[in-house]
Specification:
CATH architecture of the largest domain: Alpha-Beta Barrel
Largest sheet: 9 strands, mixed
CATH class of the largest domain: Alpha Beta
Number of helices: 11
Distance between the termini: 40 Å
Helix content: 25-40%
Structural class: alpha/beta
Order of helices and strands: EHEEHEHEHEHEEHEHEHEEHHEEEEEEH
Bound molecules: pyridoxal-5'-phosphate
Radius of gyration: 22 Å
Number of domains: 2
CATH superfamily of the largest domain: Alanine racemase
Length: 380
Amino acid sequence: MKSNDFLGIESPAYVLDEASLIRNLEKIAALRDRAGVQIILAFKAFALWHSFETISKYLNGATASSLGEARLCFEEMKSPAHTYAPAYIPREFPEIMKYSSHITFNSLSQFEKYKGTVLNHPFKISMGLRVNPEYSEVETDLYNPTALGSRLGVDKAQLKDGLPEFIEGIHFHALCENDSYTLEKTLSELERHFGHLLRDAKWVNMGGGHLITKDDYDVDHAVKLLRDFKEKYEVDIILEPGSAVAWRTGHLLTTVLDVIENHGVKTAVLDISFTCHQPDTLEMPYRPVILDAEDSNEGEFAYRLGGVSCLAGDRVEAYSFKEELQPGSLVVFEDMMHYTMVKTNMFNGVSHPSYAIRKVDGSLEVLRRFGYEDFKGRMG
Ligand SMILES: Cc1ncc(COP(=O)(O)O)c(C=O)c1O
């Protein structure tokens, strides 16, 4: 997509490319069919519900991490959710049950607290337990759920005597933008710590982090791995990727408001905020790809990029552009669909980028604009 593809959409805007989304969904659905597993979308990564009609043609539902996501799944995907949260809020639990086909508990105490309510619910809900396989290749602590002492998932020592009665599923989440070889190593750790439980389970949910849509993902290897596991333990397998679905499916379109120089450092101030609209650029930290720019502070047109909030750290290190940046220049961040829109906030009351979609036929549609009422509504 070239910069001029965006003409006609007012900056700032997240722009979803429908054709890229469909390409990803086709690849994921093909793996699902060959491996004989179920694949659902993790809303925590991507929840632009305007695209659910398209997504539902390929994937069978979603995983929810809160009442809000479970309800969104039920209402907008027309499917009950697979729900998991580190702990459930008592006043929300009855409604969560209404919207869920599967509920996974993060601890034995949460399971004990809610199992009676679930068993008495008029519709069957399958209960699962999240375990900690104590293996992950994620290097950033912020994104590693398997560290010793982690609050996420039951420790093996607590399950020595087998799976508690009424628990039908085992859930783990240990991957982050990984391939099937990492999954293979994680599964052998899962078997080492929890192998005695697997034959008693009806289903195993292998969480997210499977970057199925990355070019070099070895689909044949994944298919064999999943089929072998399924046959060995006679379980249904569920994968719940988020990033893989929205991987490289859209952009954040921004505009330079000002160019400032201080002690020889040139900063282009944009009409977005990194802390509000691309938090991973500060948290990971992660360097997004920018259209027509290089990740370098060399060259005549190298600029730091600054956000429009007053947070001192709301900026990223320099990129080298092909041309001089001036007020009005377009800066297009690539691959901005996952873990962006779902995480935004309105710190400083800064304007929220609108949402747009570039349809398969090339037409552009603005789905949602944000304004003062959105900010005010959050403040009271
Ligand atoms: C329990 C669980 N499932 C699924 C996901 C989705 O992971 P990803 O978007 O990396 O595929 C996450 C991400 O944090 C998660 O915590």
